Amino acid sequence: MRLLADAPVCDFVASRGGVLWLRSTQVRCCFGPVTSLRAATSRPEDANRYLSLATDLPIDVRFLGAGGAGGTGDRPHELTVELRGRLHRHLVALWDGCKFKL
User: Fold this and answer.
1) pLDDT value, residue 21
2) Of the four listed, 20, 43, 56, 76, which is most buried by Cβ atoms within 10 Å?
């Protein structure tokens, strides 16, 4: 999995503890499963289930796939993290460039 995050994203994460927590979740819809991503800087309660990803970024990146610890389910080929919002800055994770995967 290739992780893309620019300097403002890394600065944002570094100023909030230096760890980026990425979680994929899957829900059922009328046409099948839909997978979405959540990006956060606050430590989740189940942090021990997250897998540490090897990246060349100056931050620590942890990932939990929809299939459980280590992400036994699908993984994106490319995971992009963006910093959005002017008043309320927040992180958005994209699965192969999309907000969700069908």
Assistant:
1) 96
2) 20
